[in-house]
Design brief:
This protein is globular. Helix 5 (124-132) links the parallel strand 4 (109-115) and strand 5 (135-145). The protein is of the alpha/beta class and 271 residues long. The longest helix has 18 residues, at 210-227. It has 10 helices and 8 strands. It has a single domain, classed as Rossmann fold, CATH 3.40.50. Helix 6 packs across helix 10.
């Protein structure tokens, strides 16, 4: 979840979504966090911490940094607090706050971390500019976003691709952009950041890694698409038969001879 109004969050707030976010976080932990470490005594702002799925890795990998994590959903924050307490982390504090009304002094953070937030915002440029105002001179921002347009799979299926495209369109109608990953470089440059570097991070899944088949292909991506079935049908983007066939074909990619690929994009920039 991100620090945006709940009506903009396409995936909802129930326990199923919390489980999906945890599966996603475990699937991409190394991909996302292996090269993210913060120095001792750094003050790091995590915007849109949601249920704390990413916060656990941040706190564990940089135990001497201090993390200030915000989200607009009280439900998500309750889960995040419980999750971090259970992990034993003592370097995290949480705030119920909106991204555009943060209760902090400007230029008071050394770094910012933003994960799966911009895709849900109708104004990602404004969000990045807002975050920049809270960073000290010389501070940095790390942004991680997916891109549903990067989805590739075998066996190929035009119906499965159509169902994925329906989810992308539904998110667009809600004011978001499920293909924002490819746009991180121009977004950050337009928002006034410097020394912008972006790297693609592909998740490649076949049956040589059955745990990734379970955690990513099935429990992250397919679960995400399945969860918006009612909204997709209500919007008339596909009919029920097409949606069911598309989900069957996506599940086919999780079979022993199937392959699934998805690309995330990670950006790093300076103020």
């Amino acid at each position: 979840m991100s620090a945006v109004r709940p009506t903009n969050y396409i995936h909802g707030y129930d326990s199923r979504e919390s489980d999906r976010l945890l599966a996603q976080a475990s699937s991409v932990a190394d991909l996302l966090h292996s090269d993210t470490r913060y120095p001792r005594n750094s003050r790091v702002l995590e915007v849109g911490c949601g249920t704390g799925a990413q916060t656990i890795s941040l706190a564990r990998n940089s135990p001497d940094a201090r993390f200030v994590c915000v989200d607009h959903s009280a439900t998500s924050l309750e889960t995040a607090r419980s999750r971090l307490a259970a992990s034993g982390a003592t370097n995290v504090e949480f705030y119920d706050a909106d991204l555009f009304h943060l209760p902090f002094e400007t230029h008071s953070f050394d770094h910012a971390f933003v994960c799966f937030v911009l895709e849900h915002l109708p104004n990602p440029d404004a969000a990045l500019r807002e975050i920049r105002a809270f960073l000290k001179p010389g501070g940095t921002i790390t942004v991680f976003e997916g891109d549903h347009g990067s989805t590739l799979f075998h066996p190929s299926s035009a119906t499965a691709a159509r169902v994925v495209a329906a989810q992308v369109e539904l998110q667009r109608r809600l004011g978001g952009d499920a293909e924002i990953g490819r746009q991180l470089y121009p977004l950050l440059v337009r928002s006034g950041y410097e020394q912008v570097r972006v790297s693609p991070r592909m998740v490649y899944v076949d049956w040589s890694r059955p745990e990734l088949v379970r955690s990513f292909t099935r429990n992250t991506f397919i679960a995400m698409v399945e969860a918006v079935r009612d909204e997709v049908l209500a919007a008339g983007l596909v009919d029920a038969e097409t949606f069911s066939e598309g989900i069957r074909d996506l599940n086919r990619t999780a079979a022993e001879d199937g392959v699934f690929c998805y690309t995330f994009f990670k950006a790093f920039a300076h103020v």
